[in-house]
Every structure is written in structure tokens, then in C-alpha cells.
UniProtKB/TrEMBL annotation:
This is Repressor. Gene3D superfamilies: 1.10.10.2910. It comes from Lactobacillus crispatus. It comes from the Bacteria.
Length: 113
């Protein structure tokens, strides 16, 4: 039986945007080609979420948490100008943002249980 988790997903998205706001991280929604990823601008403390991403609906909370992870990791902004050249590769910065995103999602899940 399929379970409708849209309410939980919306709660998680709200939590993540409140977290971003509390940590002085701005966010922008944009529409671009489905293969253009969301991104973050560390120096500006801003994340940009592509609302037309081809896997967008199921990945929204993780994408937001992942982009927040880029801001919160404290590393210098080395990938800013070549962010898309390496897209799809799993370098340390992307892996760490994935881990941050997973931890953020798990934290919200544990708060609801």
C-alpha cells in the first residue's frame, strides 16, 4: 500500500528553510533546464533550487539540505566557477554535502517520531 508522505515532506522543507533562515542563508527558486542542478553560493550564503530538476519532486528536501551543507561546511569557495564542469563526480565537497543533507533529513525524521 502506498503511503502519502506529502505532509511530512512539507514539514521537512519548512524545517530546512527555517534552519537556513536561522543561519543567515538565503534561498532562491528558479526554473532552468531539467539537467541543470541546484547550486549554492558560499560567499553570498545563498542557495538556488532548480524547480525544474528532472528528479525534483522526490528530491526536494535532500536537495535543499545538500545545498545548505555546502554553505555550512566552512570550506573555501573553490568550486564556484567550475561547479558544472565536474557535475556528477563524487568529490569530497559533494560527498560531504550529501552526508550533511542526509543528517539533516534524519534529524527532522527523529524529531517527528
Amino acid at each position: 500500500m502506498a503511503v502519502n508522505n506529502s505532509h511530512r515532506k512539507n514539514q521537512l522543507i519548512t524545517y530546512l528553510f527555517n534552519y537556513a533562515y536561522d543561519h543567515d542563508i538565503g534561498y532562491i527558486f528558479f526554473e532552468s533546464a531539467p539537467n541543470n542542478p541546484s547550486l549554492s553560493f558560499k560567499n553570498e550564503r545563498e542557495i538556488c533550487i532548480n524547480m525544474n530538476w528532472h528528479h525534483h519532486s522526490p528530491e526536494v528536501p535532500f536537495t535543499i539540505a545538500h545545498e545548505i551543507g555546502h554553505i555550512m561546511d566552512g570550506r573555501p569557495n573553490l568550486k564556484q566557477y567550475n561547479c558544472c564542469l565536474d557535475y556528477g563526480g563524487l568529490d569530497d565537497e559533494e560527498r560531504d554535502a550529501d552526508i550533511y543533507g542526509l543528517h539533516s533529513s534524519n534529524l527532522m525524521q527523529s524529531l517527528k517520531e
